[in-house]
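Researcher: Let's continue the batch. This sequence belongs to 3''-phosphoadenosine 5''-phosphosulfate sulfotransferase (PAPS reductase), and it's 642 residues. Same format as the previous ones, please.
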Amino acid sequence: MAGRKPFEDALDHIFWCDSCNVPLVSEKCDACGSIGRQVILSPPGDARFCSPYERTIIKGLFESSYGYDPIGERLVLLNKVPGDDKADEVIVDGYTLGVAYYDLRDAEYKLDLRLHGAKLLIPMATKKMVKVRVPRDIHLSGKAIKGCMVLEASPDIKKEDVILVKVNETFGGFGIAKRDACDIKDPAMYTIKIRKIGGGSVRLNDKRGTIEDAVAANRKTIESMEKGAINVIKAIVSQGKNKGLPVTVSFSGGKDSLAVLNIAKKAVKKLEAFYVDTGMEFPETARFVEDAASTMEVPIVVERAGHAFDENFPLFGPPAKDFRWCCKVCKLGPITRLLSRYKRGVITIDGKRRYESFRRGGISASEKNPFVPGQISVYPIKDWRAIEVWLYIHMKNLPYNELYDKGFERIGCWLCPAALQAEYRRMRELHPDLYEEWEGLLYRWAEGAGLTPDYVRYGLWRWKSHPNKMLNIAREKRIPLKPHKEDGMALNIIRGVSPCTAGGYSIEGVLRLPRWAPIDGLLEMLETIGRPAYSDDLDVILVRSPRGTVKLFAGGQIYASSSNKEQAARLFEDAVRQVLRASLCTKCGICVKSCPGKAIRLDGHIHVDGQKCNHCGRCTEGCVVARYYSRLIEKPKNISPK
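Model: Same format as before. Here are the structure tokens for 3''-phosphoadenosine 5''-phosphosulfate sulfotransferase (PAPS reductase):
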């Protein structure tokens, strides 16, 4: 399958034991000794077992579209693939039958077939099928055929339907109907676009594999992976200055942190779990966290954000995928408070994995958390895939969050903008009271901002800078994206330069822009004033420089600290200038030419080589945006040190 891997050595396949009829995470079956058949996965390759709720959705798609359900109670894998929203390859008996996806425009699930799925369906389907007459020596995949080649057609076919195309008992595939059934035989028109067609047939295995069979077939491999994860924890905990540091486990109530909690118990004698209640947790998650910790006999500390979200919503509006101010207020703040009691430092075992997203592909086994002083984060299952996590959970018979069985792939806050729209719809079904409360708040916010109700209805509030998929929906539905009440640009100082309790001086403000550069663009530009680091979980950028440190939060907050007043003020203004440069860049190329160290290049957007940059500031001096900083944004009077 084509596509970018989440990291260089990422696996793009699993195996399938045809004897036991179960997936394998390594080539050899631990139950029967057979060598598995390779099954290619689209990236990032984070396959998982299908939940009961997802099974109901997928069975319904097959039955409503083709009149036949090939899945039944068989073991089904879902492999997350890139898409506008929720999209998963459906894998049964080692065959990829299609992609089940949530259509944002029509707000419903749909099914896109693959060749194996079409061949499996053709002998049994009663809907959306045509029989055609074509010479077998003609290559048809990707081509259109005229209505004169259509011999028979199901009466239920509508234009743009994904239809089954049958030539004979051993040759068939699928395509797109370009006409309704009544016109699909029109000899003068191209009425079907063939997507994929070929010879051969697909037959499912007579044996019905189960989760228990899958655990048995992978037991030795998963046990070996558990041992490796235990050794990672032991090695880091016993290293030099780490010896004697308290060990904690970040327990979110999700599957990955559950697996890590069980592994950590085996690696260290004394540990403590902690859970941050953001105030927007699912009730199921809050119950599960405390029940699981009690069942597993692990002490747990719950740190609560209280009403922090409600108190900050009037200032920032709804959080968005590219504007997650809530992470600072409701997660980073409580974590910092909680871990500040460990004066010497603390080791935190975390369930972060590389296969979760492309951005996480580069994580190491451990790292110092630049956003929480003294915290060393350890990622013992960083190389595990979702299927391996689930095999481990089932192998150890661990209780897990019930939301997974109810259709959630990811467990987070119930209003999280980073969640899928499909899961947001599911939240409405499970918790209509929470949904109605949040929707009401969003509609009132939209009205106050001069936006239409459709802006909320189609989930456009989830972005500040809308991606193409949402821009297309907005155009099709004629939804205005710009508020009638234009906010423009502004820099508001929350606290002028003043002494810090920890020593030195700091300044904090909020920068408001009509659009912000992507995270990668900000990181590139901030290389010119220091060494930036980004936390995907918290949506925070930290910049370290000889002059001090800068933190940029998702809500537009910028915080700078230094050893003296003047440095703190200058560092703050420099950070604001770099954000402006990244967000308002005209791609004029002046900075490229003005850099004496040849550290800058222009390729779509500005790229800064941090190894070559000596932070001389020449690029900023030559930048039109930075030069007219005071005209673009009215400089607050209280920015200067007193």
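Researcher: Any comment?
Model: The first helix runs from residue 52 to 66.
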